[in-house]
Amino acid sequence: MAINTGLQFTFQVDGLADDTFSVLEFSGMETLSSPFHFHLKLASRLEDIVPTQTVDRFGILRIWINGKMVQVRHGIISEFRQGDTGHHHTMYEVTLVPSIARLALRQNTRMFQQQPAQEIIQLILQEMGIQELAFGLTKEPKVRDYCVQYRESDLEFVQRLAAEEGMYYYFEHSESSHIIIFSDDTKQAPMLPNELEYNTQSGGMSTGAFVRGFTQQAKICSSSAELKDYSFLNPRNSLQHDFFGSELDFQRSTYEHYDYPGRFKEDSLGQKFTQFRLESLRSEALTAKGLSNYPELISGFKFSLKEHPSDSCNRDWFTIGVSHFGTQPQALEEAGTSGSTTYNNEFVVIPDHRQWKPTPNPKPRVDGPQIATVVGPEGEEIFCDEHGRVKVYFPWDRYNTNSDETCSCWIRVSQGWAGGQYGIVAIPRIGHEVIVSFLEGDPDQPIITGRTYHARNKSPYPLPAHKTMTVLRTDTHKGEGFNELRFEDEADKEEIFIHAQKNMDIKVLNSKNERVDFDRSTSVGNNENLVVAKDRKVTVDGKQDHKTTGNYIELIEGDSGLTVKGDKSQHIKGALGVKIDGEMTFQSDTKITLKVGGSFVVIHPGGVDIKGAAINLNSGGGAGSLALPANPEILKSAAGEGSMFVKHCPLEGDCE
Asked: 33-37, 124-128, 364-368, 542-546 — which is least confidently predicted?
């Protein structure tokens, strides 16, 4: 219960009577962007309060002056210790922290996609049951395509994310709750209602609130910052930004802070992130420290100081840290002490026109490559974007249980060769296991650098039986079959094997040379078309056999010559017809014989011999009909079908 006169401290635990504890002393530390921490020493007439009755419950520290509550700290009890028992009281010690401190107890690895930092922070706090939060932002954070919490506590992740976006947080307290407030502008900070008077002579609360020992401090800090980053979406843009500090007259301006990567992938974010970095580096450039007995003083708020002998100090200040100390020895009657209740604090402030930004925590680094599985929409086998990027499922991901295209961001794929519209392209397919590395060890920058087989996705040929093979085999998309290029390196079995599941096209813009030192066999299951735009020469050193089971049609649009150095014989089981529009000459050095049955005509150097059962001149018999082959024009149309080579290279006219 509060008394009507003087200074008093009380402490209440949720679920216990208001007068269960008396406060003997306390100390507390409050700083921006950090959970506050109060340590209290308590006494109680109850000796059987066990720690499990109080820990993880809400506790309230109240400060009273003349029966009026002037300050309150609401939090959760993170630690409760039972001490010795005296004549009338049992000693206890309590640690009071904000609800956000619970986030330090949960470590996680998870990813967020297409969400701004504000939304991510709010989600994590709400998951831990923290509904009392507010955002007082002058600039809305941009949506992050991909953001990973990697082996960090929720608190480390939230603080890192907030700092990257230039946000700090502080607390507002009431008897029923404490609110976590995120802000990005110290100029918007709330002002404490009372001005504080500087008074070095005051010695107690009876004289009212005062400040003493107020001193200013200047510290050499970085004078400028330059950050640089890289984006493959705009590789020619350097993504380089700089920002120069103000109020540099007391130091050199050559203390540049340069860093790469700058943690931004969009040029529009570069200047803002660079400014945040420098403001965090210069947060202690101009500060002031002081002592006070004003219990309302709290980090995140501004106050106005007056009556200081130095005019530069009589101004508004922004509080970045406060250490509280309170003693109430008379709460323990058996101590027999006559000491009075005291309260004082130490504080650190900056001029209210200056910005204060927290220093971003170092990003966690991924120790090495990780295994992941390529994923995509149901019914698809290959899922990529215009850059050949794919999406993957990481084994550590507990939140994306569907293993579909929502599992990750688009991840780039390292190829064996990559140039301007040339190189190697092999898109990992859904279900493939890949090796994922991380640029600079950054979990937000994954890149696929390898592929691996596993127990379900096995190699094309059983191993180790085919360990001498080097194989490139594809898989038909949404069908059965494959294309394959295979090398066999087993001694005396060396082989290069090519398999095309359907078509195979080869295009040579200049010459093509082939040499086969032994046998060669070619088998064509259907039609074959051969078009030679200019000359063709065939040399066979041995025999040549040619068999056509159907018709054989030949068209020669120029001259035709045939030289046989040995004998030539032809056997035609049907008719032979020859039509000549011009002259026809048969010449032999020995003789020419025409024979039908027992009749013949022999022409030789000695004369012409004719023998027949009857020899008819200008009488008898009739001319036979000439059986010509099919129209040779079909050769022209056949030459232009089914070949990518000949459509620009007709039989008539010039080749293109």
From this structure: 542-546
Question: What does DSSP assign to residue 626?
Answer: P
Residues in the chain: 656
Tell me which DSSP letter residue 379 carries.
T
**Residue 213, phi-psi category: left (phi > 0), alpha (psi -120 to 50), beta (remainder):** left
User: Which DSSP state fits 206?
Assistant: G
d(CA 303, CA 315): 8
Phi and psi (nearest 5°) for 575? -95, 160
User: What is the DSSP secondary structure assignment for residue 411, as one 8-state letter?
Assistant: B
540's CB contacts (< 8 A; 6+ apart) are: none
**CA separation for the pair 171, 169 (Å, rounded):** 7
How far is 407 from 201, CA to CA, in rounded Å? 66
| CATH code of the domain made up of 370-452 | 2.40.50.230
Alpha-carbon gap, residue 158 to 139, rounded angstroms: 18
Q: Which long-range contacts (CB under 8 A, 24 or more apart) does 43-47 make?
A: 43/89, 43/90, 43/91, 43/92, 43/331, 43/332, 44/20, 44/89, 44/90, 44/92, 45/88, 45/89, 45/90, 46/20, 46/90, 47/85, 47/90
Rounded to an integer, what distance in angstroms lies between the CA atom of residue 72 and that of residue 63?
A: 6
Q: How far is CA 79 from CA 53, 83, 106, in A?
A: 11, 13, 17
Q: Say what the pLDDT of residue 62 is.
A: 97
Helices 267-281/154-164 angle, 10° precision = 110
Per-residue model confidence as pLDDT tens digits over 355-395: 999 998 899 999 999 999 999 999 999 999 999 999 999 99
Q: How far apart are CA 71 and CA 205, in angstroms?
A: 14
Tell me the CA distances in angstroms from 587 to 385, 559, 561, 606, one per residue in order: 75, 18, 15, 15
User: What is the tens place of the pLDDT at every residue in 543-590?
Assistant: 999 989 989 888 888 898 889 889 989 888 888 888 898 999 888 889
Query: Which DSSP string corresponds to 288-356?
Result: EEEEE--TT--TT-EEEEE--SSGGGSSEEEEEEEEEEEE-GGG-GGG---PPPEEEEEEEEEETTS--
Question: Of 279, 281, 276, which Cα lies nearest the Cα of 264?
Answer: 276
Max Cα distance, the chain (Å) = 167
Give CA 330 to chain center in angstroms: 62
CA separation, residue 23 to residues 70, 200, 201, 330, 518 (Å): 16, 29, 28, 10, 103
User: Under CATH, which number does the domain 1-193+316-344 receive?
Assistant: 3.55.50.10
Q: What's the confidence (pLDDT) of residue 154?
A: 98
How far apart CA 186 and CA 388 sit, in angstroms, is 45
DSSP annotation of 89: -
Q: Do residues 140 and 438 make contact, with C-beta atoms less than 8 angstroms apart? A: no
Boundaries of every domain in the chain: 1-193+316-344, 220-281, 370-452, 469-499
Alpha-carbon torsion angle 416, 419, 422, 425, nearest 10: 40
Do residues 405 and 391 lie in contact, with contact meaning Cβ atoms separated by under 8 Å? yes
